[in-house]
Amino acid sequence: MVGIVIVSHSVKIAEGVKELALQMAKGHPVFTAGGTADGGIGTDPIRIQEAMEAANSGDGVVVMADLGSAVMSVGLAKEMLDPDLAEVVKLANAPIVEGAIAATVEASMGSSLEKVLQTAHDARNMDKID
């Protein structure tokens, strides 16, 4: 089963996005790495690495990130992973809320890593108005 990691500068945002995603896909493995180790605003590559490792059940991990430096921290965290795991951890180029919900639902259906990642990417094109 593809795991999901939500990375945000804010613990509250990461946990809120997780809460929304799990409303649609109860029980799916979704992990968060929000804020810094001391609870402040920011990102922590070590916390992100730990979330990636926890989310991995053997089928890969899709990571959602909120802002530019979170993306950089995800890259640093991937560099700290075992190379085999790093190969199947994918950062989605998608909006964090819509992408996380779509990816979590897709993953909960047992879809492949590639399909979950594509579903997250497709969330970029969601129309919100008629």
Question: What do you see in this structure?
Answer:
Helix 1 (11-24) packs parallel to helix 5. This protein is 51% helix and 15% strand. Helix 1 (11-24) links the parallel strand 1 and strand 2. The radius of gyration is 13 Å and the shape is globular. The chain is built from six helices and four strands. It has one domain (3-125): Phosphotransferase system, mannose-type IIA component (Rossmann fold, 3-Layer(aba) Sandwich), CATH 3.40.50.510. The chain has helices spanning 11-24, 45-55, 68-80, 83-87, 96-108, 113-122, and strands spanning 3-8, 30-34, 61-65, 89-91. It has 130 residues and is of the alpha/beta class. The model has no long low-confidence stretch (mean pLDDT 95). It starts with a strand and ends in an 8-residue tail after the last helix. The protein has a four-stranded parallel β-sheet with strand order 2-1-3-4, sandwiched between helices.
